[in-house]
């Protein structure tokens, strides 16, 4: 459900914010005369100034609340947990820093974690995935959200930094991560805090790969729950959820017909398998490129043509990277593609396609 109001930035006087807490509570909003807008405070790190991000219509937060209510209906298990454990607050004392997408679904999870007693500070793992109307609704509900759609890389890192220390000055003691974004920063900049962190969860293949490298080099300082390899994640979310999200994203962005087109899937892991199945179900001819011989053989046994990127780039209409790796589609590949080819990435991160070269 898209936001109905437009957002804008307006400068306010730089002021001292206690304990580094840059989110505005309701009292501060009233003092600024912003009662009719939903507001969160951000910073331009290089300029050293603070800006007030205002959603110019109250309906933005209202739209987000409606989307959250709809998502709750689709998440009966999470809502059941809220009902059973909400009264006892089993997460009381947990200062949870999250670095995940800010969507209606994660919004339901965030509010459930708070209902179970946790203190929450949240940033987004992907600068382009935040749903602003959801962020507005969560901010209005009193949750510290440091995320907005279209962050620069510098702003993304600044937002993650804001989740390290909580309003009372105490540091995080639990992490909920995507792509190892927050966990990496903790190990690089806040290693002295790791002794008090109970643990972290990681939900992506790319994030788990990075954590395994840390473990192998004996630099991993906190316990990790590998959510990515759980059956419900790998066999359901990766397989079914990613496929549906891919087709939905392509149609929303391009309004194109998938049937009859040649779709090239780069990577045939659980995500690639789900994407191939969904695109095939929409009538596309699917071609797979895969460097792992076992996965490549699986693709062939599933009935797909298997080839190299160099060959596939000459015949594809739609290209989907699904590996979490880097520089898979490069300039030399793009030069060989047909005019108006569609490039998509559903893997973690933003480096699978050389967008810098493309621009």
UniProtKB/TrEMBL annotation:
* A Pfam family per the record: AdoHcyase_NAD
Q: Name one GO cellular component term.
A: cytosol
The record's region (Disordered) falls at: 1-31
Domain S-adenosyl-L-homocysteine hydrolase NAD binding spans what residues? 238-359
Q: Which UniProt keywords apply?
A: NAD, One-carbon metabolism
Q: Which residues form a coiled coil?
A: none
Q: Which GO terms describe its biological process?
A: one-carbon metabolic process; S-adenosylmethionine cycle
Q: Which InterPro entries match?
A: Adenosylhomocyst_ase-like_sf, Adenosylhomocysteinase-like, Ado_hCys_hydrolase_NAD-bd, NAD(P)-bd_dom_sf, S-Ado-L-homoCys_hydrolase_CS
Q: Would I find NAD among this entry's keywords?
A: yes
Keyword flag NAD: yes
Reported cofactor(s)? NAD(+)
Where are its TM segments located? none
Q: Which GO terms describe its molecular function?
A: adenosylhomocysteinase activity
- Return the similarity comment: Belongs to the adenosylhomocysteinase family.
Q: What is this protein called?
A: S-adenosyl-L-homocysteine hydrolase NAD binding domain-containing protein
């Amino acid at each position: 459900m898209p936001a109905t109001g437009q957002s804008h930035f307006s400068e306010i006087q730089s002021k001292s914010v206690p304990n580094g807490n840059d989110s505005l509570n309701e009292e501060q909003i009233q003092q600024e005369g912003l009662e009719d807008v939903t507001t969160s405070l951000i910073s331009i790190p290089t300029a050293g100034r603070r800006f007030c991000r205002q959603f110019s219509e109250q309906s933005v937060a209202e739209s987000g609340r409606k989307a959250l209510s709809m998502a709750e209906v689709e998440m009966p298990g999470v809502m059941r947990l809220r009902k059973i454990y909400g009264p006892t607050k089993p997460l009381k004392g947990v200062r949870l820093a999250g670095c995940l997408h800010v969507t209606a679904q994660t919004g339901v999870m965030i509010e459930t974690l708070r209902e179970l007693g946790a203190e929450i500070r949240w940033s987004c793992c992907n600068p382009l995935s935040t749903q602003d109307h959801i962020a507005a609704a969560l901010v209005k509900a009193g949750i510290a959200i440091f995320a907005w759609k279209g962050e620069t890389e510098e702003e993304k890192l600044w937002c993650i930094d804001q989740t390290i220390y909580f309003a009372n000055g105490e540091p995080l003691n639990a992490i909920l991560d995507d792509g190892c974004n927050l966990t990496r920063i903790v190990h690089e900049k806040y290693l002295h805090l790791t002794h008090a962190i109970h643990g972290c969860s990681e939900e992506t293949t790319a994030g788990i790969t990075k954590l395994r490298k840390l473990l192998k080099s004996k630099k991993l300082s906190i316990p990790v729950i590998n959510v990515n390899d759980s059956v419900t994640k790998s066999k359901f979310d990766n397989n079914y959820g990613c496929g549906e999200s891919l087709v939905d994203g392509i149609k929303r962005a391009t309004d194109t017909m998938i049937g009859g087109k040649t779709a090239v899937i780069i990577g045939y892991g659980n995500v690639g398998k789900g994407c191939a199945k969904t695109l095939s179900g929409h009538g596309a001819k699917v071609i797979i490129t895969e460097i792992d011989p076992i996965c490549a053989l699986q693709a062939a046994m599933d009935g797909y043509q298997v080839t190299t990127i160099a060959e596939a780039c000459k015949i594809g209409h739609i290209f989907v990277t699904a590996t979490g790796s880097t520089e898979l589609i490069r300039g030399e590949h793009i030069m060989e593609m047909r005019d108006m080819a569609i490039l998509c990435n559903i893997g973690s991160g933003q480096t699978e396609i050389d967008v810098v070269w493309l621009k």
